[in-house]
Amino acid sequence: MAQADLKEIDKLRNAELLYKFSLAVSSTCLASETSPFEYLTWFTFLGHSASEDELRLTLDQEKWAAVVFEHAAVHLMAVQIDTALEAKFGTQRFDHTDCKIRAACSVARLIRNAFAHDPFDPVWEFTPRFANQTYEVEGVIALDTTSLEKRQVKRKDYGGPLALLRFLQFTIRLLHPEG
Asked: How far apart are CA 88 and CA 95, in angstroms?
């Protein structure tokens, strides 16, 4: 296996770890009646410092931050999948001879683009080439771009965050088919 593929797999695994950890943080925070965290009493780095009072979140802020953390982890997964597929298949990946690879590359780029332009309020925007199309990696992820243009991204549009997790795992298998 190429060294470049191994590097991309490592990045994908980091994105997977972050996403799974975000789920743990989210479920812990949302179920908790008290803060599950120990905050630093003082943090200093390169001449800057912050006290516990500056760093501590309220319980409501922790719950909202957990939701935002999970959202950010989903965004990071999408970006890393797109980056890995581009590294593997290059700029002509949307014209690949294998329809599964073509669909995977298109889904990854479209989700990544939606988040990249406004991560906390992603909106679907398609060039004519990608509009009114259905892209599917069977049993993994699907995206039908029909009627999505200029709409806010909803998880159900691409099958949700678990579909994205399966897509990340599919991408790892694509880069490393022997295990």
From this structure: 14
